[in-house]
Amino acid sequence: MECVKILHVCRNQTDSLTQTHHAVLLAFAEIVDSFTACVGQILAAQELEQGGFPRAVRAYQSNMLTASDLTGERSSQTDGVARYRCVVQSDEWGHESILPFHLQDGNPFALKKHTIPAYGAAMSVQVAIARIHEYESTLLDSATGLLLEEAGLKPTFGQQILVKPNLVAPSNAKHCSTNPLVVKSACAYLLDCGARVNVADSPAFGPASHVASKSGLKDAMAEIGLKVKTLKRAVPLELSGGGTIGLSKDALEADTILNVPKLKVHCQMTMSGAVKNLFGCVVGFRKAVAHNQLGHSHEVFRSMLMDVYDALPQAFHLMDAVRPLHKDGPIKGVPFQLGLLSASENGIAIDASAYSILGLIPHQIPLWEEALLRGMKGADLTGIEYPLEGPELFDPTGFELSPERPLDFHVMRILKGRIRSIQKYLTKS
Q: Hey, what CATH class is 124-428 in?
């Protein structure tokens, strides 16, 4: 199937463009016309860069219109912002060339060319889904094993596997963390296969053992002879946007990672799933520092999250969406009865599948947008296959997103968090 990529170009309707800027827009329209002579209809507005210049480029599928909208004429508007979408189609070799606007070298109209693979049969990925209405279901163990097998996780004897649950904070831990019974079922399956299993995370607030105790995971792991540890030994990861971040060597040295996220709303990233959960492989307070240093821009922050996802060893993903957190998150909030348990070898696909079940679309989810922009496998819903049950079996009626909050952390919040962590460590000692 031929894929269409849509590029969004935003500008403030109240800021008049100079003749030079009009000329650049017209030149860009001519370039696009040479490929396809199409543009998509106008989207809802988002926050602008200073001066009203084009801020971001995003990829979507869309209906087509004519290229005349790029001349500066607006066919619709929202909150004082005009947004245009440009279409470039795949070539005969299955690649797509796109020429987005980027803020680069101080020039807000600099063009930077990206080439991304077209979606199609070669980009297909499987997401295995099962309906589990209660965590206490007698079918949980067998369903978990079946899902992991369908996802391709069949560990060999002695294989070292890091099981990475979602442990975020001791507050409301029973609802905002991965359910202990899901983690226990996954670990039991791996142990039965002869794997060497380590269960670890680096929570945003407090040591993993403390959060695990509050969530019930500590007791669940003790029943099968395992302990919950904290990911440590930070090593610098070079980020595509510049700078580094401290990624756990414990995670990097694992043969395989089984990522077990809790599906939930997120006040800064809209939703948290498999990709976001792997941010927990960044060691300790470095996550808070990343919020402080990179939180000025959703584009920069989500790029960092995707760099972390890309840098880790082979990972499989088992999503706990039996009772996802809604109304407020990632910590506060209440459970929503969805009854979904899913698995995949692709974190982007398992996230996209869950988000689409909830009725969400890419421009609502920063990490889904980032995956589409990078042309990553699993981001396009048309390339996802369901070998077991289908997404149409789940009812998202009544699911509510979280109120939005600032992405960046104030330095005092970071210092207070470190003081609390030290106090808990000294109390434990």
A: alpha beta
Peptide bond just before 330 cis, omega within 30 deg: yes
The predicted-structure confidence for 95-129, as pLDDT tens digits, reads as follows 333 333 333 333 333 222 233 333 333 469 999 99
* Cα 268 from chain centre: 12
Beta strands in 278-390, from DSSP E residues, in sequence order: 315-326, 334-335, 340-344, 384-385
Q: How many CB atoms lie within 10 A of CB 106?
A: 6
Burial of 315 (0-12, 13-18, 19+ CB in 10 A): buried
**What torsion do the CA atoms of 341, 203, 402, 337 make, to the nearest 10 degrees?**
30
Q: What is the residue extent of each domain of the chain? A: 4-118, 124-428
CB neighbour list of residue 313: distance below 8 Å, 6 or more residues apart: 251, 252, 254, 255, 256, 257
How many CB atoms sit inside 10 A of residue 22's CB? 13
Model confidence over 22-64: pLDDT tens digits?
Answer: 444 444 444 434 433 333 333 323 332 333 323 232 222 232 3
Q: Which tens digits make up the pLDDT trace of 136-164?
A: 999 999 999 999 999 999 999 999 999 99
In this structure, are strands 256-260 and 315-326 parallel, antiparallel, or unpaired?
Answer: parallel
CA 225 → CA 111, 139, 188, 189, 197, distances in Å?
56, 22, 10, 14, 10
Task: Return the percent helix, strand and coil in the chain, to nearest 5.
Answer: 35, 25, 40
Q: Could you say which DSSP state residue 25 is in? A: H
Residue 317 pairs with which residues in a beta bridge? 259, 344
136 is written with which tokens?
A: 């206490």
DSSP state, 418? Answer: H
Q: What residue type is 393 in one-letter code?
A: L
